[in-house]
């Protein structure tokens, strides 16, 4: 039997360490090797998802279990289901695209950059496949370190990269510490005089670590909640995000928005919802309130940004709010099975589509920055006539992001609202305002400021997209249109699992 | 043929993709691909029409459905597909016909005359000629898909695709390179603002519609038209009650009406439509006749069984009031506009008001009939106005006058369209508008006060319609030229432009007979199994007011033509009211001062709150922690000094050792980090 998941997760790590053996000064070789090597997890992920994975089975597949630390019952337990396999694949895709794009844009400390990037990939994939909480935590922390360095070292000097990086690192770490406490608490709660406790995520979901002790369960819940809410980021824990994004190099921003934020919402669905359904239900209104705030407030704050990248960063706050709203709907009291599964479908699909769309948007922002060395929205204007190919990509990605039907973002938003409306009527109705504000923001602040109007003198010699930039963006645009028109290509995988997941929830 | 109905969507979208991906370098190939695409759709549409005509009654009771799974939604599948009922069948024929004419016309219109460095006149294609044909193909796709949608979500998808196209096309001239002379910078700014306004205003209506759709889905459990409109579902939704005892049917219908108000430019979301004139004229014709605005009326017609349930009566009342008020409101504004296209824009809003009002008083057949006839004569009016603009190079009627001598064909077709708009027999608009008013009058006789409101507004609006249309005719085509210089260059448009006009003129003249009671009203029989009687009183009154309006226009503008620089006679008559009308009742200004400003203000406040309060808290916590660390250090240095001195020696040695591993190489740090973490875990758990 081939350990597919281990190969996918650890191949980037192997590639990263292989880079250390390269002689100095061979930057071109380092770049090409990394890109080709990053195809290994991507191709394996594609094979596993499309050829081997059975979307009709609502169970963990490709499970591997190896005892790791027997005395405390820690195991190397990995597996994927319909919730995780799309993100394993997306991580592979965005990493390859990020590395490919960085080949042309990263000029300093090349080896270190590609090393960090591959290490980061292992961390992220590891989180998605871990079924042991201990292992999950290790990978969770593992992803933090390379991202810190990517921001601090390759960040734009004028954006205070040191500050942004340490803010990102410490903020996430604070959450992690509380999560660690909760993990240990659960371990202790499940241990008995004769047998050790468990870190196994699937087991914890069936076992109910704290029985009916709501107080203790709530403490553990909020500890983990904090870690995930910071990562998502959910209002009011979101302020590290715009700083980290503006400072990060383009490929770093893409991964940050495309995958790292999803680790938080993934945790909501993989851990909080199945292990603490009761506590989640009891607090569904509160969390939905935060989600609604993130949606409306995030869009409004985005609207007042003058920095292109900050604006997209805040739009992420808005979009991730929909995910949390969907998860809350799946936990809400009184929701029917249909409401819950549709809401959760929407949440998971929104994670995927946001990764694709916002990933593309950060590439697009980066491409403009490479040319103009500014991100000030007021500095542009009229570029649509001068660089039409760039304009076309920006328009498509913007409309996908504002939820135009026919493009990916709409389907997930529709499903979230459909699922949430029945039981979180007020929150979802107010959240609809977010749709209007997002549209206003993209049309007015982004498209109008960048593409329309009179062309400024200094941009007369601007060059349109290079072939390598087009190659970077095309797969993402194809996904936006593909999922928008045929949402089934991803939803078929997700749906089986969400139905099983919400059916298994016992309140 | 019914099985092939999806082709009406496939052909134009294929044209769109071909142009975008392969043909965008060749202007001719792009134009002809777009025309071929819409022509293919037209062939299919007429095939369907011919097949459907003999089976109208059957199709009305049991519409044709073809569905397939779209995406999984919990334990069931959401479907996609197409439906054909009599309304969809006639809409397909109307949309493809008008679109084909508009597409052909655009071949000529999108060539611009300009003077070269030597002062010679030249004709060149618009620099984004191919793109234009790609966009209008997508626009047609949106409308045709909407018409045959088999569920509400699918309809919404196409609805929004049209929203996108309208944005792209209204803003078609919102980009310009310095060497492009066919537009100026002011035009660029206006196009930018207009396209944004159109998308955002309709978007407000759209999200209201979106909530209504979600609500419907939650209550009924499906959005498929064949399942919503079964007697059982309708009975359920009729008796279903939501919070505060509000009936679901009423609230859902009201929310869906929000979509119509946005898309069909009804008061108070009408403000985008006049500004939409900033797009090239064929786009105006598309938006005003065949597609966009027709979609809003079509939505109510499509959801009519829901609106017609008894508990949705308040929503129906709202439909009637909004429509009737808009019909009158917009007609009065039309009196005081000088831009030839803007007058037509307000006439569109007003005519849409008639349709909406008709549906609001349950005159389904009359409302949809007017939708069809209006599409033809309004497309005709816009395209002939475009021909005028193409010939003289301005939109301002004050600079026109006497054009009939140089633009004979355009004058004739415009007059035909105008007659249809004014509701003069036997032109198309007469039959449809008359039936709306006749039905309203009938209801008044039955004691329905709402219909009285509709009838009065409609009749009064008919008077104003004739007045502003008459003003437009006399100012544009009659009298003497008011701008000699512009008049010199005036020329009749090429055949590629006037031929479609001639065809549309035929439709504007004769299409009304399909709904004429004199001929057994085949249209109404087909779409609704209704057979209206001809009401001589209603017809007499509406023709009477139209003639009165036209007569007044002749007195004001025809008898003694306006001279250059002269004050508009109507402005003397109306006094201060003229100013209010000219400024469109200041609705734009009110919105700018309230909603727009408020949103910007709140957004700014939120951003400040985020920066100073939310992020400020984070930074303060961070600073406090650092301070705490420093305090510890100070305590250490001050009070534990002696001890530190002892340890100092030791520390010095260790730090020397540590310095050796501080290589500055990130991978080393990481290796240490990982080892440390492993060690920590090991020690922690093994002991």
What does this protein structure show overall?
The complex is a heterodimer of chains A (507) and B (687). Chain A is mostly helical. Chain A is built from 20 helices and three strands. Chain A has a two-stranded antiparallel ribbon. In chain A, helix 9 (240-247) packs across helix 13 (308-331) and helix 14 (337-372) packs across helix 20. The two termini of chain A are 38 Å apart. The mean pLDDT of chain A is 91. Chain B is mainly alpha-helical. Chain B has a two-stranded antiparallel sheet with strand order 1-2. In chain B, helix 17 (364-392) packs antiparallel against helix 19 (428-445) and helix 19 (428-445) packs across helix 24 (536-558). The chains are: A mainly alpha (507), B mainly alpha (687). Chains A and B meet through helix 4, helix 5, helix 6, helix 12 and helix 14 of A and strand 1, helix 6, strand 5, helix 7 and helix 27 of B. Strand 3 (453-454) of chain A pairs parallel with strand 5 of chain B, so a sheet runs across the interface.
Order of helices and strands of chain A: HHEEHHHHHHHHHHHHHHHHEHH
Q: Rg of chain B from C-alpha positions? A: 32 Å
Structural class of chain A: mainly alpha
Could you tell me the mean pLDDT of chain A? 91
The tally of strands of chain B reads 5
Strand order of the largest sheet of chain B: 1-2
Assembly state of the chains shown? heterodimer
The chain pair with the largest interface is: A-B, 79 and 64 residues
């Amino acid at each position: 039997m081939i350990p597919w998941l281990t190969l996918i997760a650890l191949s980037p790590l192997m590639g990263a360490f292989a880079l250390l053996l390269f002689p100095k000064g061979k930057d071109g070789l380092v770049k090409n090797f990394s890109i080709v090597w990053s195809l290994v997890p991507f191709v394996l992920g594609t094979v596993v998802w499309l050829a081997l994975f059975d979307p009709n089975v609502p169970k963990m597949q490709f499970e591997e279990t190896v005892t790791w630390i027997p005395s405390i019952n820690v195991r190397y337990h990995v597996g994927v289901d319909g919730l995780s396999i799309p993100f394993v694949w997306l991580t592979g895709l965005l990493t390859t695209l990020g590395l490919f794009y960085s080949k042309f844009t990263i000029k300093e400390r090349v080896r270190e950059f590609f090393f960090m990037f591959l290490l980061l990939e292992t961390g992220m994939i590891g989180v998605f496949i871990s079924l042991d909480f201990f292992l999950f935590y290790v990978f969770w922390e593992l992803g933090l370190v390379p991202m810190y360095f990517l921001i601090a070292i390759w960040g734009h000097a004028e954006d205070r990269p040191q500050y942004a990086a340490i803010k990102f690192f410490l903020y996430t770490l604070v959450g992690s510490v509380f999560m660690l406490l909760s993990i240990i608490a659960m371990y202790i709660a499940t241990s008995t005089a004769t047998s050790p406790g468990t870190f196994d995520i699937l087991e914890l979901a069936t076992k109910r670590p704290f029985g009916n002790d709501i107080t203790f369960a709530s403490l553990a819940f909020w500890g983990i909640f904090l870690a995930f809410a910071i990562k998502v980021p959910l209002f009011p824990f979101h302020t590290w995000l715009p700083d980290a994004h503006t400072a990060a190099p383009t490929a770093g921003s893409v991964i940050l928005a495309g995958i790292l934020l999803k680790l938080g919402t993934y945790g909501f669905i993989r851990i909080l919802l199945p292990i603490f359904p009761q506590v989640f239900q009891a607090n569904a209104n509160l969390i939905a309130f935060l989600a609604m705030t993130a949606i409306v407030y995030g869009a409004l704050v985005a609207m007042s940004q003058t920095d292109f990248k900050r604006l997209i960063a805040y739009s992420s706050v808005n979009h991730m709010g929909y995910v949390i709203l969907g998860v809350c709907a799946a936990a809400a009291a009184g929701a029917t099975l249909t409401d819950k599964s549709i809401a959760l479908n929407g949440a998971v699909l929104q994670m995927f589509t946001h990764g694709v769309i916002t990933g593309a948007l950060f590439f697009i922002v980066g491409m403009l920055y490479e040319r103009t060395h500014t991100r000030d929205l007021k500095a542009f204007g009229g570029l649509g006539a001068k660089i039409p190919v760039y304009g076309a990509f920006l328009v498509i990605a913007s409309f996908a992001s504002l939820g135009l039907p026919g493009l990916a973002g709409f389907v997930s938003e529709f499903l979230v609202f459909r699922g949430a409306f029945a039981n979180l009527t007020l929150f979802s109705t107010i959240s609809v305002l977010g749709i209007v504000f997002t549209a206003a923001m993209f049309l007015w602040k982004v498209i109008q400021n960048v593409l329309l109007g009179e062309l400024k003198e200094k941009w007369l010699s601007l060059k349109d997209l290079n072939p390598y930039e087009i190659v970077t963006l095309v797969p993402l645009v194809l996904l936006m249109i593909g999922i928008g028109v045929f949402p089934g290509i991803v939803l078929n995988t997700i749906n089986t699992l969400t139905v099983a997941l919400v059916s298994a929830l016992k309140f | 043929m019914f099985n092939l109905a999806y082709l009406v969507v496939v052909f134009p979208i294929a044209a769109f993709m071909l142009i975008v991906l392969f043909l965008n370098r060749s202007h001719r190939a792009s134009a002809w691909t777009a025309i071929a695409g819409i022509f293919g759709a037209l062939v299919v549409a007429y095939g369907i029409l011919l097949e459907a005509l003999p089976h109208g009654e059957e199709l009305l009771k049991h519409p044709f459905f073809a569905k397939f799974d779209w995406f999984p939604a919990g334990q069931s599948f959401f479907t996609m597909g197409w439906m054909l009922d009599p309304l969809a069948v006639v809409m397909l024929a109307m949309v493809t016909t008008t679109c084909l004419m508009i597409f052909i016309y655009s071949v000529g219109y999108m060539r611009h005359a300009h003077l070269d460095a030597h002062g010679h006149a030249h004709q060149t294609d618009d620099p984004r000629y191919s793109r234009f044909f790609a966009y209008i193909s997508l626009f047609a796709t949106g409308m045709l898909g909407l018409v045959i949608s088999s569920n509400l979500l699918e309809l919404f998808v196409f609805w929004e695709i049209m929203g996108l196209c309208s944005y792209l096309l209204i803003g078609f001239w919102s980009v310009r390179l310095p060497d492009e002379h066919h537009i100026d910078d002011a035009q660029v700014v206006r196009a930018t603002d207009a396209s944004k306004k159109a998308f955002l205003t309709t978007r407000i209506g759209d999200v209201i519609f979106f909530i209504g759709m979600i609500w419907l889905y939650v209550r009924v459990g499906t959005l498929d038209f064949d399942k919503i409109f079964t007697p059982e579902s309708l009975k359920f939704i009729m008796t279903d009650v939501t919070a505060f005892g509000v009936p679901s049917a009423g609230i859902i219908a009201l929310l869906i009406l929000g979509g119509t108000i946005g898309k069909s430019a009804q008061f108070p979301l009408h403000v985008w439509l006049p500004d939409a004139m900033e797009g090239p004229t064929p786009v105006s014709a598309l938006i005003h006749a065949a597609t966009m605005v027709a979609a809003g009326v079509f939505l109510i017609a499509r959801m009519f069984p829901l609106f017609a349930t008894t508990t949705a009566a308040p929503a129906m009342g709202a439909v009637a009031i909004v429509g009737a008020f808009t019909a009158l409101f917009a007609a009065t504004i039309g009196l005081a506009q000088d831009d030839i296209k803007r007058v037509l824009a307000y006439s569109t809003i007003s005519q849409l008001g008639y349709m909406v009002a008709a549906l609001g008083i349950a005159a389904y057949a009359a409302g949809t009939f007017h939708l069809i006839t209006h599409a033809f004569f309004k497309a005709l009016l816009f395209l002939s106005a475009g021909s005028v603009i193409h010939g003289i190079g301005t939109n301002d009627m004050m600079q026109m006058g006497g054009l009939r001598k140089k633009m004979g064909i355009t004058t004739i077709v415009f007059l035909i369209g105008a007659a249809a708009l004014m509701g003069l027999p036997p032109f198309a608009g007469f039959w449809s508008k008359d039936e709306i008013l006749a039905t309203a009058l009938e209801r008044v006789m039955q004691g329905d006060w709402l219909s009285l409101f509709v009838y009065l507004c409609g009749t009064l609006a008919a008077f104003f319609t004739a007045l502003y249309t008459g003003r437009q005719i006399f100012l544009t085509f009659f009298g003497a030229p008011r701008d000699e210089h512009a008049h010199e260059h005036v020329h009749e448009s090429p055949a590629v432009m006037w031929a479609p006009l001639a065809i549309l003129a035929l439709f504007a003249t004769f299409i009304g007979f399909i709904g004429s009671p004199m001929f057994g009203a085949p249209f109404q029989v087909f779409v609704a199994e209704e057979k209206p009687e001809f009401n001589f009183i209603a017809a007499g009154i509406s023709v009477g007011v139209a003639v009165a309006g036209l007569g007044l226009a002749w007195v004001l503008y025809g008898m003694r033509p306006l001279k250059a620089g002269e004050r508009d006679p109507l402005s003397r008559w109306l006094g201060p009211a003229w100013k209010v009308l000219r400024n469109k009742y200041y609705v734009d200004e009110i919105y700018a001062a309230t909603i727009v400003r408020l949103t910007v203000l709140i957004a700014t406040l939120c951003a400040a709150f985020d920066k100073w309060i939310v992020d400020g808290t984070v930074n303060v916590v961070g600073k406090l922690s650092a301070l705490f660390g420093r305090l510890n250090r100070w305590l250490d240095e001050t009070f534990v000094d002696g001890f530190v001195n002892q340890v100092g020696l030791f520390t010095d040695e260790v730090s020397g050792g540590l310095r050796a591993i501080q290589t500055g190489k990130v991978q080393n740090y990481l290796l240490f980090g990982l080892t440390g973490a492993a060690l920590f875990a090991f020690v922690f758990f093994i002991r």
